[in-house]
Write a structure and sequence with these properties.
By secondary structure, the protein is an alpha/beta fold. About 35% of the residues lie in helices and about 30% in strands.
Length: about 300
């Protein structure tokens, strides 16, 4: 089955020469959750806005389910749902009318059963007659998602959907996204909460300075670039690493109580056995040994640092 979104050599430049997007190439698989990570100003929102027709590209092309976003804008846009970063809702309108209006914008016939399904899915049905201004920030965020789903899109863009949402509501959002995926919706998520990408994404893309640095299956990325860290806790603090133990892979904690050894999980030999023998030979007494796997956040920070160097 062909990819549902195809992006080829997409560029966006502004007056003055600033390049927000620098030749983005990306294929988004049908039914996947793709997390786009990147620092502020990396180009994430510009990319989404361009695909959704809010921003006009300088050059390049995008197709959504085979429809070009410029030459066949209506067909392409009808397939897309967008949950923007900013909450911009009519405060005095009732929730149910807000969602109905969004459905009508796409030329969809009135369908109260469909609206009810969306509102129930987002735990908004009991708030349907409330004015938007009466809702909490988290509930307003849910209304944004309901508006985006009102016309039954097959591709859903979530631009920082949990910004300003408390931890409990954020977890609810993850559950909603998982249910949408189960219904066959393709989801593209931008987030500053890297644990979200680690928890729910199938693939991860990293954007920095308008360039797509990589797109890879999450598990493959973490296996390929992840490292493990062994913390050797000492009974008595030391002021420096003994000469016999010094290596690029070994560091001493600031308080002198822990030797920190970093090793590649893919290596045939980790070097741990030799390290522990050398520690004992140096007369150091172990109190405990702990290991830690690199998280997606560690990998992301490392990639962005490399790009900035």
């Amino acid at each position: 089955m062909p990819d549902i979104v195809q992006i080829k050599e997409l560029r966006k430049s502004y007056k003055g020469g600033f390049q927000a997007l620098k030749g983005i190439n990306l294929s988004i698989r049908r039914g996947e959750i793709l997390a786009l990570l990147g620092p502020n100003g990396a180009g994430k929102t510009t990319l989404i806005s361009t695909i959704c027709g809010i921003t006009t590209a300088t050059s390049g092309s995008v197709t959504v389910d085979g429809h070009d976003i410029v030459n066949n804008y209506r067909a392409a846009r009808s397939i897309i749902g967008l949950v923007p970063q900013e909450i911009n809702l009519e405060p005095f309108e009732r929730v149910i009318n807000t969602v109905r209006f969004s459905r009508g914008l796409f030329g969809k016939p009135s369908d109260d059963a469909a609206i009810e399904k969306v509102l129930r899915q987002l735990s908004l049905w009991d708030k349907k007659d409330n004015q938007v201004r009466e809702l909490s920030g988290g509930m307003k965020r849910r209304v944004l998602i309901a508006k985006a789903l009102a016309h039954d899109p097959r591709v859903l863009f979530l631009d920082e959907p949990t910004a300003g949402v408390d931890v409990e509501l954020r977890k609810d959002m993850w559950d909603i996204v998982a249910k949408l995926k189960a219904d066959g919706v393709t989801i593209i998520l931008t987030t500053h909460y890297i644990e979200e990408a680690e928890a729910i994404a199938d693939r991860v893309g990293v954007i920095a300075n308008g360039e797509l640095m990589l797109v890879e299956d999450k598990d493959t990325l973490m296996a390929r670039m992840g490292q493990k860290q062994l913390d050797v806790l000492l009974t008595d603090p030391i002021t420096e690493i003994p000469a016999a133990l010094r290596s690029d892979a070994l560091e001493l904690s600031e308080d002198g109580t822990t030797l920190i050894y970093t090793y590649d999980t893919r290596s045939e030999r980790t070097g741990i056995t030799k390290l522990l023998a050398d520690v004992a030979a140096a007369g150091l007494v172990l109190r405990d040994v702990q290991t830690r796997q690199s998280s997606l956040e560690d990998i992301f920070v490392g990639l962005v640092k490399e790009d900035a160097a």
